[in-house]
């Protein structure tokens, strides 16, 4: 098991990159702590697989270094890195039995046959394939083959890290939950450093202790689910995480006041006078509707009942604002203002969060 350090790392698939836009992975300095479970979250094309493949050694970065426990492995081949990687689509040996597929990484390392037998049995149990151990992999469903790939990824106990690249894509929904639970318990049992790539926030938030959010080739925030919810460091994190995501609106900010669409509101904290494109970010959970005089004027467009609560879709001078209203709370026709709970208001300048001034 290892701490993994990314030092000045960047990658371009082009032979002669010129500007930042040419980089699939923009310059990155980051430590993955030994024994932590991380989710790497971001939309398609943001560079998740590129980063994972650099860590495992399938790809050599065009710039920077990778260290395992402070040892430089940048140019080391995959075999020397001692990493297990599971991909989005199954990689199995069709002519081998399920048992031999699972045993493969252990036999490769010359493990003791009795140990292999027990460990394979244990893994087969985890992936629910004890009954099919002696069947050939050929002819099994994509779902079953992917479970074998997962099992093979988990079979070795002595790896530096386990990397999963959207491994549950082809798995049916009810098995997804089951397998994710297995991965978590595997993490508790062996304490491997794990990086789990997904574009699904629910998967990320339920799997990991720390979520690393990527956007456009960059890590924009690493934090606990609570940190990502309360203090999104980038507007992308705000609206990518949450359901619905954070509301973002143009504003002018000066000290502890903001002006939104001509109306002044209090922020509760001072922010100086941020330069650049200034926006407020407020999650729907921190907004309430009001029939009073205070707050920002809105028009309610729709109310959606989603069971646990209602989502109110309102219009603030052309910007859609979502408000979460608790079940049982009344929404009356004269509610034409929104009021922010200042504890949940973040200020952004050019998409990055501005820290409030300490009084
Ligand atoms: P993700 O896994 O987050 O969907 P990727 O790491 O696969 O993203 O891709 C990041 C960017 O790099 C994308 O713009 C993608 O088109 C590009 N890319 C990925 N693989 C290659 C490749 N082998 N050659 C050239 N460009 C690539
Ligand atoms: Mg990918």
UniProtKB/TrEMBL annotation:
Keyword set includes Transferase: no
UniProt superkingdom: Bacteria
Single GO cellular component term: ATP-binding cassette (ABC) transporter complex, substrate-binding subunit-containing
Gene Ontology molecular function terms on file: ABC-type ferric iron transporter activity; ATP binding; ATP hydrolysis activity
UniProt entry tagged with the keyword ATP-binding: yes
SUPFAM superfamilies in alphabetical order: MOP-like, P-loop containing nucleoside triphosphate hydrolases
A Pfam family the protein falls into: ABC_tran
Family classification: Belongs to the ABC transporter superfamily.
Protein name: Carbohydrate ABC transporter ATP-binding protein, CUT1 family (TC 3.A.1.1.-)
